[in-house]
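seq:
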Amino acid sequence: MILLLSIHQDWQEEARKEVLTVFGHDKPPYADGITRLKLMGMIMNETLRLYSPAYSGFMRDVDKEIRLGKFDFLASVQFHIPIMTIHHDPDIWGEDVNLFKPESFAEGVSKATNNNPIAFMPFGMGPHICAGFNFATNEAKITIAMILQRFTFRLSPGYVHSPFPVLAVRPEKGVQVIINAL
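struct:
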């Protein structure tokens, strides 16, 4: 989120306004307030769509013979679900799929995915969803809220964009930002 908010100063300012409206300048973020951060949620979802933590996707086993549409699958077949491919599919997200557009989540995941909510799965899906999903997203919202209460930030001129897929997408050379107190 820091990277994208550093690039998109307009969204950083809107997120800051929301955080200051909910928490003010001095009050630390609290649970009820975190749930009221709608813009922050939209920015979080768009960040997770563009740079999914489960970069390579995940595997699922077929336990019994099934039919999906016109295809039959035998038991013991494995499916690879390529999350980054799905999160960057223009048929689902639109022709501007590679642009940072948090507003696409303004009316929820269903509208953002063209009524295909299963297409947004940054932490997996169904009974196999990451157990740390809520913890990770709340921790990120709290951290970003605390930063926005006190600082502005922008990318350093020396920043080199270098997403590096390991288990998750990480910046190979880090994210250098310039931070200024409010």
